[in-house]
């Protein structure tokens, strides 16, 4: 397990995350054809974006897993949605990693979604390596970018490289460790392996490089692994600058599998028992087979194909005969897996996000919440005879975490809840493409939802007076559907014996 590196890439949309993912896979030998996300033809699309809506829009909306090996290290790369509307999926993915790469656009600096994702990493003390992308284009000064990361994120920054000029003046990237410069070649101005000494630099550029080297803290492994310091690399994913150095840094510095929280306990990777948790479920990755894959982050033990594990949501053991490792979009059967690995478990609705899997069924991993939806819509079928298919589709998609579904106590129209508008677009697209169900989404009288908890008497009383505002989630738990946040606060004051929670621990 000490040679496992399980990490995610986080960024604002359009910072170049998918291109960087592709180039890391290319360097690791996991793919053999690089192509821009928006290039035409399925073979040239980014390998981690396989849903139709992603291919149309050129964005990542699901989190996918890619494993590759290089120089004796197994890298498990978890791609995350860059779009803020998929923050729940990203949050859950970040519970399954041990470190992250933060991609920043050299011209734009830290953007809102980058900051949000960084805060999630900080909550879990996830160490971060920063990659300042697109330095071959016009951008801000390197000091401006470094100082913004330090000030806005309250992190020590330790630059490990520097661009020699930007945009039209770009002549390469100087790597501080080796003292060599990666140079652009050919008409495309890509890095193809040519390195040489920096030579005599113009005085102002030499001064800038010297200030970059001495004006910031030296790299400190302990501070980085505690989440207090970030090493910063400059480069261009599209033109291959900085990608080699990034892989080397992850191999050298990123932590091997870390302990995971289970209530008051921490489950360490050297525990003999096989344990893990489901952080994602993805249906129809291969539409020809109507498959359904649960992604398990293995926390401890040595997993062997065919062994029996007990899911916390089921209570009885299941044999895992066909566990999958993901090599970009390709799959292979996993005979064994170690702590830190991500394995796909084919199943038909028995495994859900948040489930713990273990040999003895004595622990529960914590920290994978549901969040209160910020948009609620009624689902109306165009063809009323397809009610059964709609129910199946909504159950599947809520199991994946794409949406939440609420069944009102009064009235027949089901309500879906999401964090962002784009999730609704994905819902309608997938209903049609995968389930052959045409539906429209109508305005709902409710603006938000809260999970209810309290003693039985208080719950019964509340239920009898507010049945028109109550629904059940897909677990059967009672949910208060509120017309506004003011409504939530009013009911909270009137019912002090109940809690109205904006999150639900899975």
TrEMBL record:
The keyword Magnesium does not apply. It comes from the Bacteria. GO terms for cellular component: cytosol. One of its GO terms (molecular function) is translation release factor activity, codon specific. GO terms for biological process: regulation of translational termination. It is found in: Cytoplasm. SUPFAM superfamilies: EF-G C-terminal domain-like, P-loop containing nucleoside triphosphate hydrolases, Translation proteins. The keyword 4Fe-4S does not apply. GTP binds at residues 11-18, 79-83, 133-136. PROSITE patterns: G_TR_1, G_TR_2. Keywords: Cytoplasm, GTP-binding, Nucleotide-binding, Protein biosynthesis. Residues 2-258 form the Tr-type G domain. Belongs to the TRAFAC class translation factor GTPase superfamily. Classic translation factor GTPase family. PrfC subfamily. Increases the formation of ribosomal termination complexes and stimulates activities of RF-1 and RF-2. It binds guanine nucleotides and has strong preference for UGA stop codons. It may interact directly with the ribosome. The stimulation of RF-1 and RF-2 is significantly reduced by GTP and GDP, but not by GMP. This is Peptide chain release factor 3. It comes from Pelagerythrobacter marensis. The gene is prfC.
């Amino acid at each position: 397990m000490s040679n496992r590196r399980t990490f995610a890439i986080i960024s604002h949309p359009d910072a170049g995350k998918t291109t960087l993912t592709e180039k890391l896979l290319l360097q690791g030998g996991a793919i053999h054809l690089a192509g821009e996300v928006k290039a035409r033809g399925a073979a040239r699309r980014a390998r981690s974006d396989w849903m139709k809506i992603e291919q149309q829009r050129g964005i990542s909306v699901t989190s996918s897993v890619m494993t590759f090996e290089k120089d004796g290290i197994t890298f498990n790369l978890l791609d995350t949605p860059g779009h803020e509307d998929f923050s729940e999926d990203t949050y859950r993915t970040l519970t399954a990693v041990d470190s992250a790469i933060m991609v920043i656009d050299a011209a734009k600096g830290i953007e809102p979604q980058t900051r949000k994702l960084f805060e999630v990493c900080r909550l879990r003390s996830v160490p971060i390596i920063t990659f300042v992308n697109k330095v071959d284009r016009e951008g801000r000064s390197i000091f401006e970018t470094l100082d913004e990361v330090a000030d806005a994120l309250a992190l020590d920054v330790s630059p490990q490289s520097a661009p020699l000029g930007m945009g039209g003046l770009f002549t390469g990237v100087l790597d501080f460790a080796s003292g060599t410069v990666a140079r652009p070649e050919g008409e495309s101005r890509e890095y193809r392996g040519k390195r040489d000494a920096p030579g005599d630099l113009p005085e102002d550029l030499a001064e800038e490089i010297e200030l970059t080297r001495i004006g910031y803290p030296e790299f400190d492994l302990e501070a980085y692994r505690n989440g207090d310091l970030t090493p910063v690399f400059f480069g261009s994913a599209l033109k291959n600058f900085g990608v080699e150095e990034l892989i080397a840094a992850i191999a050298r510095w990123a932590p091997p599998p870390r302990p995971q929280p289970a209530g008051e306990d921490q489950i360490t990777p050297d525990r003999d028992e096989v344990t893990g948790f489901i952080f994602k479920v993805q249906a129809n990755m291969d539409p020809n087979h109507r498959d359904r894959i649960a992604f398990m982050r293995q926390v401890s033990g040595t997993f062997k194909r065919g062994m029996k594990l007990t899911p916390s949501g089921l209570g009885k053991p299941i044999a895992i005969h066909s566990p999958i490792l993901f090599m970009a979009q390709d799959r292979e059967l996993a005979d064994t897996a170690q702590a830190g690995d991500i394995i796909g478990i084919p199943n038909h609705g028995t495994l859900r996000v948040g489930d713990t899997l273990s040999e003895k069924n004595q622990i529960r991993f914590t920290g994978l919440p549901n969040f209160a939806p910020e948009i609620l819509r009624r689902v109306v079928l165009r063809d009323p005879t397809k009610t059964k298919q709609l129910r199946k589709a909504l159950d599947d998609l809520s199991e994946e975490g794409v949406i939440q579904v609420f069944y009102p106590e009064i009235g027949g129209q089901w309500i879906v809840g999401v964090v962002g508008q784009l999730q609704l677009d994905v819902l309608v697209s997938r209903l049609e493409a995968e389930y052959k169900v045409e539906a429209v989404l109508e305005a709902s009288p409710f603006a938000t939802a809260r999970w209810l908890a309290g003693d039985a008497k208080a719950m019964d009383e509340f239920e009898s007076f507010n049945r028109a505002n109550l629904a059940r989630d897909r677990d059967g738990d009672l949910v208060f559907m509120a017309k506004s946040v003011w409504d939530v606060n009013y009911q909270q004051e009137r019912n002090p014996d109940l809690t109205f929670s904006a999150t639900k621990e899975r």
